[in-house]
Amino acid sequence: MELKDKIRSLIMSKTVDSEYRTIGIEEECIIYDDKNRRLPVNQGYKFSATALVNIMNSKSNKNGVYSIEPGGQLEWSSPPFSNIHEINSSMKIHKSSLNKVINKKKLKVLDYSVEPVFEPKEIDLINQLKYRLMDENMKKADTLGRWMMRNTASIQINYDFESESELEEMVFIADCLQPVSSYLFSNAPFWKNRVALNENIRYLIWEKTDKYRCRNLIDHGIIEPKGLVNKYMDYMLNVPSIFGFDDSGEICSVVGTLGERLRYLKKNNCLRDLDINGALHQIFTNVRLKNLIEVRGADRPPFGFELAPVAFWTGLLTVSEVRDKVLSMIQTWNIKERLTWNSNARYLDDSIIGPKGKSYYYWNKWAGDLALEGLEIRGLGEETYFYDYFDIILSDGPFSLQKQKDLKKKNKTILETVIA
């Protein structure tokens, strides 16, 4: 079997009938200690994120899995569920369990997508070879990778798919509508202990993290749904490697591109699914492929609204009638329009002109209305997770701007606002 056939086989290994489609989420959060500093990530004389994740996994009782991001951010990965109500029930259990530990240890969970006060140089990196290799790579690949690793938090949504053509449609839509997602769910009002003004900070950080493996698929020559999987594999195989796996399955340093590494292993008859998965996980685009579709572009929203991006993307991506409507429109956008719009998504200004000469506000409302239509067609009452949130954003702007206005009214420092 050729290398690309093996990669395709792994990507397509979990296809399901649409009635059995599941949704899973990964929720990240930044945590401060009782001295209003970032919770240290590595074990030492103080309570650490490593200790926290061990406690949470011991209490999980199969309600998902906990892990640590490179700067000590806590990530909860939910089990897969058939609808958003089930995810909500699971999230309530997760939050209840986490809050008990947080209160006991006098910690503070922040509902921001970017660290508001401290810079990467003030935050330890997790003591794991994988992340040390990533850290070295980020120093060379672009300017803000260390911010991404240590100082960001997001909501990621995972979807099953029923066929390669459906996968290609879903991924293309998610790539085209990333500017809408980045506006609606922008929740980074502060960074470097100052206000962000109208900069969409987490989006900017990801744009400047790694020019080879981040940004949107269009930036890597993937411009249409037809043949997207094949073009995605071609792109992935030409990306520089960060790490690989040795004979025992442990992380190791490697050189060359991901494709060169995989071809070497295949030539020597030692290519494993582990190696292919490891390569796929070294792509950080706003939507990426594993053996499911992972939509990555939303900031972690304020408390209580964590499922708003889940509902938004579920309404748009999982209902064929809505996908058809979205595709019929976005396939009329030309490449220049899309690239310009992606660039303008750095700024939280809904009067900026997007595709077809229409405003950012127009496209935000268009996509949000279609998401609600999709949720209504699903017929499960899931629109409750997006409807009120969407109304707030259309009326008052993204939370990045709302929280800056609140700061000005309260006349407090950013740290006082963050830990209030």
Task: State the total count of DSSP E strands.
Answer: 11
Q: How does the helix and strand content classify structurally?
A: alpha+beta
Instruction: List segments where confidence is low: pLDDT < 50 over at least 5 consecutive residues.
Output: none
Mean pLDDT: 96
Compressed to H and E, one letter per element, the order equals HEHEEHEHHEHHEEHHEEHHEEHHHHHHH
Helix content: 40-55%
**Number of helical segments with 4 or more residues:** 18
The biggest beta sheet is recorded as:
7 strands, antiparallel
Radius of gyration: 21 Å
Q: Which range does the strand content fall in?
A: 5-15%
Cα(first) to Cα(last) distance is 58 Å
Shape descriptor: globular
Which features would summarize this protein structure in a list?
420 residues; alpha+beta; seven-stranded antiparallel sheet; 18 helices; 46% helix
Walk me through this protein's architecture.
This protein is of the alpha+beta class and 420 residues long. It is built from 18 helices and 11 strands. The strands form 3 sheets. Strands 1, 2, 3, 4, 5, 10 and 11 form a 7-stranded antiparallel beta sheet that branches. α7 crosses α15 (360-378) and α13 runs antiparallel to α15. The longest helix has 22 residues, at 84-105. The chain is globular. The chain starts with a helix and ends with a helix. 45% of the residues are buried.
